[in-house]
Design brief:
Radius of gyration: 22 Å
Helix content: 25-40%
Largest sheet: 5 strands, mixed
Strand content: 15-25%
Distance between the termini: 24 Å
Oligomer: single chain
Length: 368
């Protein structure tokens, strides 16, 4: 067996192989999966699978889920993932609100907290507030693998350092990952809010190539291309809100003029949501023409206030652009599932996905 999902029978890759097995256990759900099926689907030897599953059971990550009749011989024992054997925190730091969720190994939310947030107060004050909310969230719960943090960019995902966030220059250079990790005593991974949301949607099977457009207190995009979250070499991909649509347009807090974010937020401020949708659709049409993506998903608190209007408005503009381009295939525009906590849930997947071999992120995923 070859390909990205194939296992390798080498001691140095025990962590990789365990992640493959864990992912199949998670996908099997409560019904479970047999060791023979695990071997067939990973390409590992039955002996390797037996060793991995024995270790996972010993660590409390896997358990028996009964027996299943076989075509010959004795019934096969099936195994399942133990969802509450581990947890991860997803933290969404918006410009005026904090959302924190605690999820189990299946990604199911088991606890949630929301609180006002003064993002402009600066890195240390926000890190203090975030650590306090996470501490309250974790009270009474078991093992936690880490904390995923999603917030406006630009930022350096690999180092967990913020750059000059639009409208908040005081964040430039702040080492959020280390600051929050020191306060919590837990591993922390940091990414843009749009990337976190797109990762969660990709793991849920949204599409092979899509754009997640988030319109809330700002505007950004998360890109999944060929099934992989695309961050760019410097985590700079997806700065969708600062493409210029009008050369002599209104000033944007980024320092340019006529950015799609400035135009959208101005329309929202004067109550013209139809115009905001038209502007957003124009920018989305540019993106579909440039990247030839399969789907556009919309999210963010502003979109959620008028879901149908935004889906129809953006969809109409994108459809017209696709027709003019002569591509032939439609590019559907739809509301992203998950609602207002979709970014926080995606942030939790920044921690969980590597444990299951499903994401290439700067996080010590395979430590076993």
């Amino acid at each position: 067996m070859t390909g990205a999902n194939a296992g390798v029978n080498l001691p140095a890759l025990r962590g990789h192989n365990a992640a493959l097995v864990l992912d199949l256990l998670r996908a099997a759900g409560e019904t479970g999966i047999s060791r023979l099926e695990l071997a067939e689907r990973t390409g590992l030897t039955p002996q390797a699978v037996s060793k991995i599953t024995a270790r996972l059971r010993g660590e409390g990550l896997a358990a028996e889920a009964g027996r299943r009749a076989s075509t010959g011989g004795k019934p096969r024992t099936v195994l399942r993932l133990v969802p509450d054997a581990g947890h991860a925190v997803g933290l969404h730091l918006d410009r005026d609100e904090l959302t924190a969720v605690l999820v189990d190994l299946t990604g199911t939310v088991v606890a949630e907290r929301r609180a006002p947030l003064a993002f402009g107060a600066g890195g240390d004050a926000v890190a203090d507030a975030a650590a306090g909310e996470v501490g309250e969230l974790l009270a009474g719960h078991g093992a936690v693998s880490g904390v995923g943090v999603a917030l406006p960019g630009p930022l350096d995902h690999a180092e967990g350092v913020l750059h000059r966030v639009t409208g908040f220059p005081e964040w430039d250079g702040f080492p959020l990952r280390d600051a929050l990790g020191e306060r919590l005593g837990l591993p922390v991974v940091v990414d843009k809010d749009t990337n976190a949301a797109a990762l969660g949607l990709a793991l849920a099977g949204a599409a092979d190539s899509f754009a997640y457009l988030h319109l809330g207190t700002g505007l950004g995009a998360g890109l999944v291309l060929g099934g992989t979250l695309y961050r760019g070499a410097r985590t700079g991909a997806g700065e969708f809100g600062h493409q210029v649509l009008q050369l002599d347009g209104p000033p944007c807090e980024c320092g340019d003029r006529g950015c799609v974010e400035a135009l959208c937020l101005a329309a929202v401020a004067r109550g013209d949501l139809a115009e905001a949708a038209r502007v957003l659709g124009t920018a989305a049409g540019n993106l579909t023409g440039l990247l030839d993506i399969d789907r556009v998903l919309l999210g963010g608190r502003t979109v959620f206030t008028a879901e149908g209007l935004f889906v129809r408005g953006v969809g109409a503009v994108v459809a017209a652009r696709v027709r003019r381009g002569g591509g032939g295939a439609d590019v559907p525009v739809a509301l992203a599932p998950g609602g207002e906590r979709g970014v926080a849930e995606g942030a939790a997947q920044l921690v969980l996905a590597p444990l299951f071999g499903r994401a290439n992120v700067a996080f010590p995923a395979n430590r076993n």
